């Protein structure tokens, strides 16, 4: 048996000792570089780097390019960091073995592990988080060169990993991102709200803006049953009286049936026309006044239009009002720019609107009186509930969908963890309900309690 290496009684005069020590320190520095670079590139703000790049900062442009090529760069960091740590552990074991035999080798590896944890992980990552953009600018160029050097090794590692995953039916090369950018922002807002950094109202506004592309006009429009309209066959005095009494500034005009919309009257245009007619012909002018002469052509939009696209169209056309039709051209409702903005900032009311609080009134036993026309989204935002809005837009629609019928007043339903009691119904519409969360919701219960 070969005896263990005899420790050098004078390591200070052994050149190999100093070479091994210097190599270990260099590897520790490389490991710290890799850890700090990874943290900086992941934490750096792209918008800040873009702003610096637009001002001519070449290092910021290189950092942006490195972040865009994060797959190859992260692969190079992973391979490089792993090789450095393995090599450092091997050299530490050799140094300890040279000094004190096998016990010295074990002690050297333990000390190296502590040094790697503190000096090559915690410390560089903490420093990188203090100034991620500046750190990313400094490390982008050397990391790019390293990625090109380690490209064959990274490609080999990926190929082996895909080969190991293939028998399980996992194709790593074709896997898309697990979370979208919107999901990441939503998670960040949820964490910020739980820590108190962001208020619920601020989170709702930010999420409302993010959700515009996911929601359609149909989900926020005013249904045709609630549209105030003007019959084109009415006299000018009757039309003027209706416009003055209406809380709305724009009113659709129909002829024959409500589906046949032929124009939209704006209150200011009508009043200007009436004033001009009175100035020209006196009071008798109202008898022959042409109301449709002041009407604008109707603007129709499909019910499936995304809200963000519709908002851009409103801004482009410089109009705030559109009539919504289905695929057959039948009138479904109307939508305004205010309806879309309310999805971001919440309910917007003025002195002519019904008080928003009347749609949602708290009860004495933890329940709420809710108007049937209130949207599920507004209810969820107001009470921080999680009722689904996939199958219906309004609270009344959700109850009708779950009950598979039009309930009568007094019927009670339990589903999705909430108790719904129908209080009032007008013809085939549920107009008022009482809702409260269930303490222990019956699993799967959707039947009505008579």
Question: Short description, anyone?
Answer:
By secondary structure, the chain is an alpha+beta fold. The chain is built from 15 helices and twelve strands.
Strand order of the largest sheet: 8-9-12-11-10
Give average pLDDT, whole number.
83
The N- and C-terminal alpha carbons lie at a distance of 91 Å
Class from helix and strand fractions? alpha+beta
Proportion in helices = 40-55%
Major sheet size, sense and barrel closure: 5 strands, antiparallel
Question: SSE string, helix = H, strand = E?
Answer: HHHHHHHHHEEHEEHEHEEHEEHHEEE
Cα-based radius of gyration, to the nearest Å: 35 Å
Q: Please report which band the strand proportion falls in: under 5%, 5-15%, 15-25%, 25-35%, 35-45% or over 45%.
A: 5-15%
**Low-pLDDT sequence parts:** 174-179, 440-450
Q: Estimate the global geometry from the Cα principal axes.
A: elongated
Helical run tally: 15
> Total number of β-strand segments?
12
Report on this structure:
Helix 4 crosses helix 6. It contains 15 helices and 12 strands. With 450 residues, the chain is α+β, with helices and mostly antiparallel strands. It has a 5-stranded antiparallel β-sheet with strand order 8-9-12-11-10, with helices on one face. Strands 1-7-6-5 form a 4-stranded mixed β-sheet. A 3-stranded mixed β-sheet has the order 2-3-4. The longest helix has 61 residues, at 70-130. Mean pLDDT is 83; it is low at 174-179 and 440-450.
């Amino acid at each position: 048996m070969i005896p263990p290496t005899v420790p050098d009684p004078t390591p200070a005069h052994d050149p190999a000792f100093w070479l091994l020590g210097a190599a270990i320190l260099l590897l520790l520095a490389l490991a710290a570089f890799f850890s700090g670079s990874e943290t900086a590139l992941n934490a750096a703000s792209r918008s800040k780097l873009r702003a610096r790049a637009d001002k001519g900062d070449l290092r910021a442009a290189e950092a942006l390019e490195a972040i865009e090529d994060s797959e190859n760069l992260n692969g190079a960091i992973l391979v490089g960091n792993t090789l450095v740590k393995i090599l450092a552990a091997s050299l530490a074991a050799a140094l300890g073995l040279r000094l004190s035999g096998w016990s010295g080798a074990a002690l050297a590896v333990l000390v190296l592990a502590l040094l790697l944890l503190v000096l090559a992980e915690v410390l560089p990552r903490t420093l990188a988080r203090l100034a991620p953009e500046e750190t990313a600018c400094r490390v982008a160029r050397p990391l790019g060169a390293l990625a090109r050097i380690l490209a064959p090794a990274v490609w080999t590692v990926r190929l082996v990993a895909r080969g190991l995953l293939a028998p399980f039916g996992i194709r790593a090369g074709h896997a898309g991102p697990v979370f979208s950018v919107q999901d990441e922002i939503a998670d960040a807002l949820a964490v910020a709200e739980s820590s108190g950094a962001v208020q619920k109202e601020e989170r709702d506004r930010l999420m409302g803006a993010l959700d515009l592309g996911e929601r359609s006009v149909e989900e926020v429009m005013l249904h045709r049953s609630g549209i105030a309209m003007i019959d084109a066959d009415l006299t000018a005095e009757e039309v003027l009286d209706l416009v003055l009494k209406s809380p709305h500034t724009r009113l659709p005009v129909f002829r024959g049936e409500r589906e046949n919309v032929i124009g939209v009257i704006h209150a200011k245009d009508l009043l200007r026309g009436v004033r001009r007619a009175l100035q020209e012909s006196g009071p008798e002018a109202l008898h022959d006044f042409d109301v449709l002469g002041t009407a604008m052509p109707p603007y129709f939009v499909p019910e499936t239009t995304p809200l963000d696209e519709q908002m851009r169209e409103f801004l482009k056309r410089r109009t705030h009002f559109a009539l919504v039709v289905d695929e057959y051209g039948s009138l479904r409702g109307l939508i305004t720019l205010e309806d879309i903005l309310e999805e971001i900032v919440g309910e917007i009311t003025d002195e002519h609107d019904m008080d928003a609080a009347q749609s949602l009134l708290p009860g004495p036993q933890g329940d709420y009186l809710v108007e049937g026309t209130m949207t599920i989204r507004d209810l969820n935002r107001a009470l921080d509930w999680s009722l689904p809005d996939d199958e219906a837009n309004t609270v009344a629609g959700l109850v009708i969908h779950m009950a598979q019928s039009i309930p009568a007043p007094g019927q009670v339903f339990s589903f999705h963890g909430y108790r719904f009691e129908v209080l009032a119904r007008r013809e085939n519409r549920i107009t008022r309900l009482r809702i409260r969360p269930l303490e222990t919701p019956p699993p799967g219960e959707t039947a009505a309690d008579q």
